[in-house]
Amino acid sequence: MSNLVLVLNGPNLNLLGTREPEIYGHDTLDTIAEALENQAHALGLEIDLRQSNHEGHLVDWLHEAGSRGVVAVILNAGALTHTSIALHDAIKAIPVPVIEVHLSNPHAREAFRHHSFITPVARGSICGFGALSYTLALDAAARLRQ
User: What is the pLDDT of residues 39-85, one digit of tens each?
Assistant: First the structure.
């Protein structure tokens, strides 16, 4: 049985720590990756964290997750959450549970952020807890493996 969790991050998440820290916090993607690595080790998991500003990369990585038999995918699709039918369809096409993650609470923000194309096809969604959203998602992924 695989012990790999794929952590996928979409557009602009490479700017964490400097982009609107009042909304997204001061943690960088590297800081989040380090915390996840430590947590994954304690849970007997491995993580593979990736980020792309390109929708097609995320689709390809979701397809890869389906063929590799990973435990789960933690997905922060960023703004693509609200626009990408391609990500919706890619998630539906794979047998791997996808956990949707957001640092902020999209439902407490602009109206265009209230709709997610990811939520209906995700196993679950965690939002509004800053970097803690990722660690909560990794804990959920570990429990899915049991």
Answer: 999 999 999 999 999 999 999 999 999 899 899 999 999 999 999 99
> What string of DSSP letters covers 52-114?
-S-HHHHHHHHHHHHHHT-SEEEEE-GGGGGT-HHHHHHHHTSSS-EEEEESS-GGGS-GGGS
Q: Is the pTM of this model over 0.90?
A: yes
CB 116 within 8 A of CB 106: yes
- The type of residue at 52 is S
**36 in a labelled binding site:** no
From 24, 26, 41, 88, the catalytic residue: 24
Annotated binding residue 63: no
State pLDDT tens for residues 88-110.
999 999 999 999 999 988 876 77
User: Is 103 known to sit in a ligand binding site?
Assistant: yes
Which amino acid would we find at residue 112? F
